[in-house]
Design brief:
Length: 189
């Protein structure tokens, strides 16, 4: 091998290593979830959005007084939350937060989807010669996305809609809209 080829093969690995080191995230840090330093993106629902929607909707439900018309704590089943956004999302990020607050408030008890928990409840009821009581209320919902843009901005609005039902009727409905904007790149990306 001549000297040029040897020099290239000795410099090439060092250059690749330097390039890769420059791409690594050596400046990673913790931030408050959903806080002012969190990443805001119009491409998806992020934790700040989930936290904001859950907090707003559960506060609205608790302050409505609708749960007080039932013996406390009322047994609630979380039913289907429909995703009408362009992203595959886990709606548990919304419903779990709401269920935690409702359970901790003492005003509602949410029914578990876990098979072992259901079997244990049925066994315990059987041993007491009782039946497992059915939920008195259900929570359903939908998450909708509306996107718009112009020459300079992209905008997305996520609409979180929840409904609490009893006896085949909606006894409470709540909605939270979250709108985010981002400037378009001057390169058209």
């Amino acid at each position: 091998m001549n000297a040029k080829k040897i020099a290239i093969w000795t410099i090439f690995p060092a250059a690749v290593a330097a390039l890769l080191a420059g791409c690594s995230s050596g400046n990673a840090r913790y931030v408050d979830t959903g806080g002012s330093r969190s990443v805001i993106s119009t491409r998806k629902i992020n934790m700040a959005d989930w936290n904001n929607a859950a907090s707003s909707l559960v506060d609205e439900l608790l302050s409505s007084g609708k749960l007080e018309s039932f013996k406390q704590p009322v047994k609630m089943k979380v039913s289907r939350i429909v995703n009408r956004t362009s992203n595959a999302i886990d709606t548990d990020l919304l419903t779990r937060q709401i269920c935690i607050v409702l359970n901790n408030s003492g005003k509602a008890e949410t029914v578990s989807e876990d098979a072992a928990t259901s079997e244990l409840a049925e066994y315990e009821a059987f041993m007491k010669n009782e039946k497992v009581s059915a939920p008195k209320i259900t929570m359903t919902g939908k998450i909708i996305e509306d996107r718009d843009s112009n020459d300079d901005l992209d905008e997305v609005t996520y609409v979180f809609f929840l409904e609490v039902n009893a006896g085949g009727k909606a006894i409470w409905q709540g909605q939270k809209q979250i709108t985010k904007q981002s400037e378009r790149s001057s390169f058209g990306f």
